[in-house]
Amino acid sequence: MTIELIVVLLVAPLVGFLLNGLLGKWLKGSEQLSGWIGSLAVLVSFVCSIIAFASLHGGAAPLDETLYEWITGESFAFNIGFRVDALTSVMLLVITGVGFLIHVYSIGYMHGDEGYTRYFAYLNLFVFAMLILVLGNNYLMMFVGWEGVGLCSYLLIGFWYEKQTATDAGKKAFVVNRIGDFGFLLGMFTLFAAFGTLDFASIFEAAEADNFQKIFGASTLAIATLLLFVGAIGKSAQIPLYVWLPDAMEGPTPVSALIHAATMVTAGVYMIARSAVLYNIAHTGEVVAWIGVLTAFFAATIALTQNDIKRILAYSTVSQLGYMFLGVGVGAYASGIFHLVTHAFFKGLMFLTAGSVMHAMANELDMRKMGGLKAKMPVTHWTFLVGALAIAGFPFLSGFWSKDEILHSAWGSSPIIYVIGLVTAFLTAFYMFRLIFVTFYGESRVEPGVDSHLHESPPIMWVPLALLAIPSALIGLFLGWGGHDSWFHHFTKNVFPEAHHDASGNMILFMVISSVVGLAGIAFAWSRYRERTPSDEPTSALHTLLANKYYVDEVYNALIVQPIKNGSHYLLWRIVDNGIIDGIVNSIGAIIRFIGGTLRRLQTGLVQAYIVSMVLGIVLFLAYYLFFT
Amino acid sequence: MSLEYYLVLSALLFTIGVIGVLIRRNAIIIFMCIELMLNAANLAFVAISRSLGEATGQVFVFFVMTVAAAEVAIGLAIIVSVFKHRQTVNVDEVNSLKG
């Protein structure tokens, strides 16, 4: 593995972006070409990622090299540099692998869209930014990628910009992310103030050295890691900043799959795993774990009562991200990243199948208007079932392994967290199979007009589904067999520091418990929704509360958005801007107009009046000269 | 004859010129009054030059005459073109620069 390989890996999507972005007008004639350019660009990156992975797997040393100096000053230097170790290579495989399949799927899904080339340009730009995020060997590069993916997320959520709800959702995502990004920035400043550099290697080395602890103490690191975690909360949609992710479903469905399920939203988990050394020293993991497990539970309860397929998946994503934070929070970094990988596959898969359903149903998302789709869309049904079984923790499918590892580590940290996590696992299985039973089984409730052209999606769409379904089912088995002793843990063991605690308890027992809980959730969903559809009206107070998502949006609106809006409108606009600033500018103008208005009367236009004043002036001068000197 | 007579004559001529410029409305007349003032100054120059026995004043007069000639050429041209546009040379009616 050389740095040239990494440069090719990184630049390929950028080239795709430039081709589609700049030549889009000429490519418009043939959509397919534009789509394949975008897909091939990511395929090149994928091949490079495999090469990098293979060389690491073959025992090559991790790469940590500077490409060139970006900013240099007297006391600081920021470099464009890459760090490719086991963690990065896993992320690269997920981003480019899942990303490639989603690009291919998009060729079919976006067929006939006005902004076809624009779509692929954005998607390539996103992959480029995401690669910067995971490849950088310092926090500044990570931040550049971090902001880049945020921008692409904004652009793609608001992709159908004629739709008011889409542009609103894009803005919401951007603004909420800014809050998190501000925390990330402050965290970077804190690290820079303490260490004088932002390079991962130097920071981790210095933080582990004894003298650092003496000079700064652990509190500096605690502040820095918590601030960085605020960034992760924003980007990875955790409590209290998760509100943007469900709304982000306004974007095209493949975008939801790629950005808002598989890759971008996991950036926060990656960041914490990358900073594992710091979190271990600062002992701030507990905060991360609690936020994670509470988000997991909270989002899962909201998902129970939603009827919009994509929103269920969105809340499910928030919930699963909570699991990942739980994992990295309790020090099980490898398990958290493992769950990130499996989740990328099965959640990406489920979003794409949801897209396939939408494609057939003329963009219908309300599952009460579906039902019995199994017969009409067999591939979609089976692939979705695989994804749902995987997320529900069905024995030996991928989610089973990764979730179980996290729960097992959580037990070692705190039994309360474990119990909440377990309840969430039950809820997850329940809401996923509620979705399945209502959508694919039972009587068809499809509206007559839509019914006639209900069809399986074209091969360009279902082949990626099938290709994603295989790893969704099996990857856990291959990577996770053996729990904490698995291949994945061996591969990543040099990246992460040792966990604080010893995982205790019988692994097999934990596996049995989680399986039973998952199966119970499925069975419960079967008993309730096998033949029934969800009621249109909430049936109880709790149901109302959940169906309205705990009124969090309303509370935020009342407590934060409206006061800021009113403050901006009445104080900043009416008083400060209109009153004070405009007032100053306008009064200066008014004064000058007044002076001018007065003086202009001297300009009578009568030549002789001017001459009189001249003569009088001369006479006055002469008089003065004659009589006073 | 002593210098005073010449200077008094010069002052009288100059005053007539100033008054003419101030009270007449016809641009041509105003113009002529300006010439009168210039020549009043010339007279003073020449008289003082003679009285002091120096040539400087007389040299000045030549300059003034040159300037006056140039002024006449340009000034009359302006008056003619004003008349072409306005059909008048009354300075009270030529007041587009009124503020």
Short summary:
Chain A is mainly α and 629 residues long. Chain A has helices at residues 3-22, 24-27, 31-57, 86-109, 116-135, 139-157, 164-195, 200-208, 210-235, 244-247, 253-262, 267-274, 276-282, 285-303, 309-329, 333-360, 373-376, 378-392, 398-413, 415-440, 448-451, 459-480, 487-492, 507-529, 541-547, 552-599, 607-628; strands spanning 63-72, 77-84.
User: pLDDT average of chain B, as an integer?
Assistant: 92
Number of helices of chain A: 27
In the predicted model, the low-confidence regions of chain A spanning at least 5 consecutive residues are none
Order of helices and strands of chain B: HHH
Structural class of chain B comes to: mainly alpha
List the helices and strands and how they pair.
The complex is a heterodimer of chains A (629) and B (99).
Chain A: H1 3-22, H2 24-27, H3 31-57, E1 63-72, E2 77-84, H4 86-109, H5 116-135, H6 139-157, H7 164-195, H8 200-208, H9 210-235, H10 244-247, H11 253-262, H12 267-274, H13 276-282, H14 285-303, H15 309-329, H16 333-360, H17 373-376, H18 378-392, H19 398-413, H20 415-440, H21 448-451, H22 459-480, H23 487-492, H24 507-529, H25 541-547, H26 552-599, H27 607-628
Antiparallel strand pairs in A: 1-2
Chain B: H1 3-23, H2 27-52, H3 56-86
Helix pairs in contact in B: 1-2, 2-3
Structure description:
The complex is a heterodimer of chains A (629) and B (99). By secondary structure, chain A is mainly alpha-helical. Chain A contains 27 helices and two strands. Chain A has a two-stranded antiparallel sheet. In chain A, a hairpin with a 4-residue loop joins β1 (63-72) and β2 (77-84). Chain A is globular. Chain B has 99 residues and is an all-alpha fold. Chain B has one domain (3-86): Helix Hairpins (Orthogonal Bundle). In chain B, 79% of the residues lie in helices and 0% in strands. Chain B has helices spanning 3-23, 27-52, 56-86. The model of chain B has no long low-confidence stretch (mean pLDDT 92). At the A-B interface, α27 of A face α1 of B.
